[in-house]
Write a structure and sequence with these properties.
Distance between the termini: 35 Å
Number of helices: 4
CATH class: Alpha Beta
CATH topology: Heat Shock Protein 90
Number of strands: 7
Length: 151
C-alpha cells in the first residue's frame, strides 16, 4: 500500500510500504526534474516538512547541504532525468540522501582561494556542516548522503 501527499509546493510525495518506517512524518521523499527549480523546490519542501521538528540551526545547515547535494546531482544528470530526494529523521540525526543517474564518484575539490571560480566548494561545505557524508553506487546511478546532528 502506498500513500501520496501533495504539499503546498505542489510536489507529490509518495511513500511505499517498504519505506514506511523511514517515511513517518516528518520524513519525506520525492523526485525533482533536473533544472533550475530543483534546488529551490527541494529547500521549500525541506522547510515545509521539517519546521518545528528539528532545531532552527540544524534546519539552516540542512538547507545549505541539501542545496549543494541537489546542485551536484543536477549537474551530473542528463536534462531529461529526475533527481531523487529522501530526507528522514533517524536516531543520530537528520539524514539527507540525493539520488542521480550518474555513476561518477563525487570528488571534493580544494580550489585555489585566489581563483574566482564559483564552483568546486560544495562538497567541502557539505563535509563542514554535516557529521559525516558519503556516497555509494546503486543500480541506476548513485546516492550521495549527509548526516546532520540535531543538537
Amino acid at each position: 500500500m502506498s500513500r501520496e501527499t501533495t504539499t503546498g509546493s505542489g510536489v507529490v510525495i509518495t511513500g511505499a510500504s517498504v519505506c514506511q518506517y523511514f517515511l513517518d512524518p516528518p520524513s519525506f521523499r520525492c523526485q525533482l526534474a533536473v533544472g533550475l527549480s530543483a534546488a529551490p523546490t527541494a529547500r521549500s519542501l525541506l522547510r515545509e516538512q521539517l519546521t518545528g521538528y528539528v532545531p532552527p540551526d540544524t534546519l539552516a545547515d540542512a538547507d545549505l547541504v541539501l542545496t549543494e547535494l541537489i546542485a551536484n546531482a543536477v549537474n551530473a544528470s542528463p536534462v531529461s532525468a529526475l533527481v531523487g530526494l529522501l530526507v528522514h529523521l533517524v536516531e543520530p540525526g537528520l539524514l539527507i540522501s540525493v539520488f542521480d543517474e550518474s555513476t561518477g564518484a563525487p570528488c571534493p575539490r580544494c580550489p585555489d582561494p585566489l581563483e574566482l571560480d564559483e564552483g568546486g566548494r560544495g562538497l567541502l561545505l557539505v563535509a563542514e556542516l554535516s557529521q559525516t557524508w558519503g556516497w555509494h553506487p546503486i543500480a541506476t546511478g548513485k546516492v550521495v548522503w549527509a548526516m546532520l546532528s540535531l543538537a
